[in-house]
């Protein structure tokens, strides 16, 4: 056996493993990418992002493309999974599904009815519908006809969550940066399947609420609106807009760190029974939603006990609305009848202790 042969054999023995290592180093990431983009389940995708920092930002960046490449059902289920795992809040879920709704309506391969039927559960589903409504306005194509049709399809699918066109109102305010013009766009949808335009009006004022709180991009069209006295602005509007304005701008009185103080701030700024009811309804709804997100249902009774008796029916209504949404998000929470009985009993116990009386 020649020396040259032995040398070549030795070199071959060294090169082959190195070549294999290079091939493996190149193929493994490619295989992982192919798996993630083609076969990964929405549940695994959500859990994988949940282990990383900035899950909401990652979702915002990736969901439009995931909606187009894997379909709306994939994107919806991924966000639902992250919400149920409490990796994101129900509010973040709602905002993310706006993005999915926008992207879904751009899919030329699907009809509206098909887009509405892809969701197996109703977790945060309003955000998905609102995103599609907003996309219709922003497209500028057959706006009234397409908005009416979406409303009809939503009702036919049995997934309507209040009046249609809330997302349209958000988009109208973003587009015009003017409350009066945005409300006029809402009224352009009258005469169709939706007789009640309050959903669209609330979308306009919800967007305005985000602007004056510095929570949304864009110029604040009303910098003179005082967030600490937002109801004063609502009182300047036509009567038909005032309740929608109050329901959304009442959120500006909320104190995230001290929700009880937020209710007191709102009640102090109110000049009518209706305004006080709005305070109790909306701020209790916000606190209830947060309590479920943070898995502290037991705190709701103590919060409710601080609401003035005259506003407690309105507060219970707000609590019920958030409970109805939460039961679709977090399986296993107690039925409303039990929750309501508990918070009312706890409130009665607080009253008894404060007055030195007995519940017997």
Structure description:
This protein has 360 residues and is mainly α. The protein contains 18 helices and no strands.
Key descriptive features of the protein:
70% helix, 18 helices, globular
State Rg: 26 Å
Estimate the helix proportion, in percent.
Answer: 55-70%
| Low-pLDDT ranges | 27-37
Contiguous helical run count: 18
How far do the termini sit from each other?
Answer: 106 Å
Assembly state of the chains shown: single chain
Q: What's a concise summary of this model?
A:
This protein has 360 residues and is an all-alpha fold.
Helices and strands, with pairings:
Blueprint (H helix, E strand, L loop, with lengths): L2 H36 L3 H9 L4 H16 L1 H13 L5 H16 L6 H5 L8 H15 L3 H14 L9 H11 L2 H9 L10 H15 L17 H5 L4 H11 L9 H11 L3 H21 L6 H6 L6 H18 L6 H20 L5
């Amino acid at each position: 056996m020649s020396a040259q042969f032995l040398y070549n054999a030795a070199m071959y023995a060294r090169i082959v493993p190195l070549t294999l290592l290079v091939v493996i180093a190149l193929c493994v990431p490619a295989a992982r990418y192919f798996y993630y983009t083609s076969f990964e389940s929405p549940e695994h995708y959500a859990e994988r992002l949940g282990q990383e920092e900035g899950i909401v930002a990652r979702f915002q960046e990736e969901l439009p493309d995931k909606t187009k490449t894997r379909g709306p059902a994939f994107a919806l289920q991924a966000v639902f999974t992250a919400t149920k795992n409490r990796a994101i809040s129900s509010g973040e879920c709602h905002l993310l599904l706006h993005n999915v709704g926008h992207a879904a309506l751009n899919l030329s391969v699907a009809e509206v009815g098909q887009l509405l039927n892809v969701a197996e559960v109703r977790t945060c589903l309003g955000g998905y519908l609102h995103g599609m409504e907003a996309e219709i306005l922003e497209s500028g194509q057959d706006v009234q006809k397409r908005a009416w049709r979406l409303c009809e399809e939503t009702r036919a699918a049995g997934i309507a969550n209040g009046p249609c066109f809330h997302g349209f109102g958000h988009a109208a305010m973003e587009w015009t940066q003017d409350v009066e013009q945005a409300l006029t766009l809402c009224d352009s949808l009258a005469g169709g399947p939706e007789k009640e335009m309050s959903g669209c009006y609330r979308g306009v004022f919800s967007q305005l609420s985000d602007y004056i709180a510095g929570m949304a991009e864009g110029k604040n069209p009303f910098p003179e609106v005082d967030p600490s006295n937002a109801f004063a602005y609502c009182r300047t509007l036509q009567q038909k807009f005032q309740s929608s304005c109050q329901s959304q701008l009442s959120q500006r009185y909320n104190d995230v760190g001290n929700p009880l103080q937020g209710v007191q701030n709102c009640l102090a700024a109110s000049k009518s029974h209706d305004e006080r009811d709005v305070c109790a309804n909306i701020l209790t709804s916000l606190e209830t939603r947060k309590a479920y997100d943070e898995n502290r249902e037991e705190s709701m009774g103590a919060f409710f006990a601080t609401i003035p008796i005259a506003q407690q029916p309105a507060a219970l209504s707000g609590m019920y609305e958030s409970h109805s949404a939460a039961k679709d998000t977090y399986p296993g929470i107690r039925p409303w009848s039990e929750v309501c009985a508990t918070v009312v009993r706890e409130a009665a116990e607080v009253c008894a202790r404060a007055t030195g009386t007995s519940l017997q």
